[in-house]
Hints:
Order of helices and strands: HHEHHEEHHH
Shape: globular
Largest sheet: 3 strands, antiparallel
Strand order of the largest sheet: 1-3-2
Helix content: 55-70%
Number of strands: 3
Distance between the termini: 32 Å
Amino acid sequence: MEVRGGNIVSQIKYLSDRIFERILSEREIDAFNGAQGRILYVLWQGEHISLKELSDRTNLAATTLTGMVDRMEAAGLVCRVPDQSDRRKILLTLTSKARALKQDYMVVSDRMTQIFYAGFTEKEILQCEKLLCRIHGNLLRHDSFSAGSKKNLSCHDCSSGKTNNT
């Protein structure tokens, strides 16, 4: 049996990134790109988080995030603010500009979901999400970067059937 799952998942990622960028362009959304949208999505779920927590939730290395957050700060999307309880810590928060973009992002995200699951029944969608979550969990268990994380918050809760729309 030839197993091609890893290759298929990689192709899905590249295609979905390209389509996401195209939809952003068609909707004339240029305030953020797809990768920045991923960061914004996490911050829309809850602001005032550290770079470490953002790293845990996005599965992006802190070194990668630093540059991205720098560019987002320069674009007026995020701010770094001191933690009131620990002055050594810096927290990330959204600007009003970024908060105003949430609806645009959700429209694009909903469109991507429609594209992903075109022709699927609800049962097939739930089955697919459950299997993808299992693969994600398998990868997390073998990832030294994720080993320090208590819980990956960017994945969905397979046991409840709830999913994050990203």
